[in-house]
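Mods, move this if it's the wrong board.
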Amino acid sequence: MPYYSDELIDQVREANDIVDVIGQYVGLKKTGSAYVGLCPFHNEKTGSFHVNRGKQFYHCFGCGAGGNVFTFLMNYENMTFPEAVKTLADRAGIALPEHRMSKEDRARADKRSRLLEINREAAKFYFAVLRGKDGATAMNYFRDRQLTEETMQKWGLGYTGSHSNALYRYLKGKGYEDRDLVDSGLIAISERRGAHDKFWNRAMFPIMDAGGRVIAFGGRVMGEGEPKYLNSPETMIFNKSRTLFGLFLAKRTRRPQMILCEGYMDVISMHQNGFDNTVASLGTALTEGHAQMLKRYTRQVYLSYDSDPAGIRAALRAIPLLKDAGISCKIINMQPCKDPDEFMKKLGPDAYEERIKEAENSFMFTIRMLERDYQMDDPESNTEFFRQVALRISRFPEEIERGNYIQAVADRYHRSAESIRQMVVHMASQEGILARRKSADKADKGAFSLNRSQRNPDEDAFAMADAYARAQDETEAAYRGSDPGMDLSPARAARKGPGQRSQPRETGMRQSQRLLLTWITEDPEIYRVVKPYLEPMDFEEGVYRDVAEEVWSQSEQGGVNPARIMDHFQEGDEGVQREVARIFNTTVGRLTERTDRIKALRETLLRIKRAAMERKRRKGNAVDPDFLTEMIRDKKKLQELEHISIDLK
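Not the wrong board. Structure tokens:
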């Protein structure tokens, strides 16, 4: 991966005004000090997407997306950080230094480039053959499947030809070496048959990565032959477990969810009929890698698998993978059709839209399928069924979620909610879930005991600090509430961060830390007040401490640049990026009276310092003289902090 200096990254960022760059993708309207538009990362009717020219930052109050100009390109165009830097450098006419690689890295990069070239040339070859005199069979096949010429061109569909070495001869004519052709997965060489194409007499479907580069192929045999469908083998550029067919086009959709199918024709037919948010997992079972890929683009997936037993089994395997990735999942009923392609031909897109509206909750689908394994008219079998249902409900971490499913199961099977609830508690106890949950709750409560016992008697000041700390949450809620047509579920899920199915209620401590970091960013004088009493180590471990270290470092250099801080989190978890963006979009203007703001700031500082002392106390050795000296020093700072003079503009 190329390495660029901080100075060069700063130069590229400063040469690309964020309003100008994002304005090429999103319609922006100046409102006050911000530019506002419809968020490109989730579906909405009222603009909650704000771009701040002063901070060179964007933030969506609906879904939580945010960052700097690099982050925007990375998320919108699915680029890596180096790719975003290069794109913006080219836009600004800035020459990037040639990246010096080791011999091994250079050889590997060159190999990847050659394999990509070979696959691109193969796609051009197949595309041309389909439209030649040898392509009539495959062309008739595609037309029989009711694909339009526009669709065939859009997906680059092709045909191998009927000769078993036609592609090999074409690629050799382009100057490619046998070793690279074999490694591409398109050519095989054996003593008995010599060099020959792995795909021949097949209709061809190019498989592209998220960036639109051809990395593999799928082929459907014309006439008799086995296997009916054949995919490229895995290569240096193709990993089946991390590739979704159609993602390159589907990632551009304005729909808030993705539809997941099984086959190429399902995806192509769905796109042709207006469902441009459809992808497939290349005929293989959904993997954790697929789920992680989907998570980059959505927090809600509709499964539209085949309606046969194999499709049902595939759906049941996919549901927990999606849920573990933090993706909400619903099941679309394909009956009486076998698959989405057949559904489009027989019933059409309007009927499919209705099926989307009627899609079944994944948990309710799971227990409906589970019911098939039990004799519901037999008391013993019936009881065991409800035990299994209760066990599954008990594994949901949130009480409200458990309660919702208890009520839903009670309603469906005409049982009392209380009887289901008691069975859930019983099964949780048997599995040890209840004990672990109580232990975790006890630990959470203990973590903040010192703050409660040592609260400052000035309750009004605490109330002001809380009001400040909640300001951003209330502002975001107002934006979401202003759009009654907005799909809130994906937005809420997006704010939870990757891989998290739910997030505990945010602590006042986290709100206070976010407020203080924003305060220092917007008023450099506050850093001068804070510096003698707080340091980055006083912040909670993780993103808040990392951001604090950058804020402290930049403050020492004369001022904080939020866009530059974001550069340090570009290769990190998407949830971390969202949280960093949220930190620098916290509202700090809710309290207008100067004295009220001073009180709120003082209590924010005290809250952070007290929590830091409590964390240190829990980890320290009470008989260690050095530790005791450090605690005494911290206590003195705390006492000084209670009486410092704060001057706010």
